[in-house]
Design goal:
Number of strands: 0
Strand content: under 5%
Distance between the termini: 61 Å
Helix content: over 70%
Largest sheet: none
Length: 288
């Protein structure tokens, strides 16, 4: 258990540490750009461009590994997914240092901005990916599973209280048919998700208010102590809060699934446009 907790902590801290490291490196490079320690056409600056270009080209390996099982000898899909994200950060950083944080000729500027657009698109895609998967390259979440998980929470209510029975009935009625009501388009899902989020907040407030009233009435009849009444009240409120969060996540999931599909349509052409611009840039540099 301790090892798992340590692993989860490391998994959460690693992206933060990487972000800080990249920010510091880019900041130092930007502040030192006028010193011209690096030049794009010779020495270390030239080779940083080569390595950065190779890093961006290597991003293709993840897509190929995911589609062709015959390539499993080169490593697992999760390994290449992590490598894809790392190379997607390392490549642009190396190119920034290669260019010494300056713009150049037209062909290099086109390649540079194409790379930035692809990098930004990748960050957006990673954010959306995290919304529809359980952890880094984890199993894809499904609306049915989230709603089933929400239904299972009702067990924590118990059945000995009138308030618990009321809350259980309200929770079931609220989530019934949610999955079938979600639209198929990204815009429709966004609109429905916003409506469901507002309804969820109102539902949570109304149910908790009524549950508190029922618990107070039962507390007077059964002569509970103040601490006992608070304990039972907190228990029900916690279940309602978790249930509402699960229902809201199910609504958000549908939207992010649609959005991820649209992102794929745009990201891949942008990537190949970047490769083409990079090839033209390399050809122009070595022929003129």
């Amino acid at each position: 258990m301790a090892a798992r907790a340590g692993g989860n902590l490391l998994g959460r801290m690693l992206p933060i540490l990487l972000t800080v490291l990249v920010f510091c490196a880019v900041s130092v490079g930007w502040l030192q750009r006028d010193e011209e320690y690096l030049t794009p056409d010779s020495g270390t600056g030239y080779w940083l461009g080569i390595y950065g270009g190779l890093a961006m080209l290597s991003l293709l390996v993840y897509s190929l590994r995911k589609r062709f099982k015959s390539m499993r000898v080169i490593g697992s899909v999760p390994f290449w997914f992590r490598s894809h994200m790392l190379l997607g950060i390392l490549g642009p950083v190396l190119i920034l240092f290669h260019a010494n944080f300056r713009l150049g000729a037209l062909n290099s500027n086109v390649a540079f901005f194409a790379m930035l657009i692809v990098a930004i698109s990748g960050v957006i895609g990673r954010y959306i990916y995290g919304k529809i998967h359980l952890g880094l390259h984890g199993r894809k979440a499904h609306v049915k599973e989230l709603l089933a998980e929400a239904e299972a929470m009702k067990v924590d209510l118990g059945q000995e209280l009138q308030a618990a029975a009321f809350v259980s009935q309200q929770l079931s009625a609220f989530s019934k048919g949610l999955e079938n009501k979600m639209p198929r388009t990204a815009l429709g899902s966004l609109r429905a998700g916003a409506i469901i989020a507002a309804r969820t907040r109102r539902f949570r407030r109304d149910v908790v208010t009524e549950a508190r009233r029922l618990i107070r009435a039962e507390a007077r009849r059964a002569r509970w102590s103040w601490s006992e009444r608070r304990r039972r009240q907190k228990r029900i409120e916690n279940v309602v809060r978790r249930y509402a969060a699960a229902v809201r996540k199910a609504a958000e999931l549908t939207f992010f699934e649609r959005l991820f599909s649209l992102w794929h349509i745009f990201h891949l052409p942008l990537f190949f446009l970047m490769l083409l611009a990079g090839i033209v840039h390399v050809w122009a540099v070595h022929h003129y």
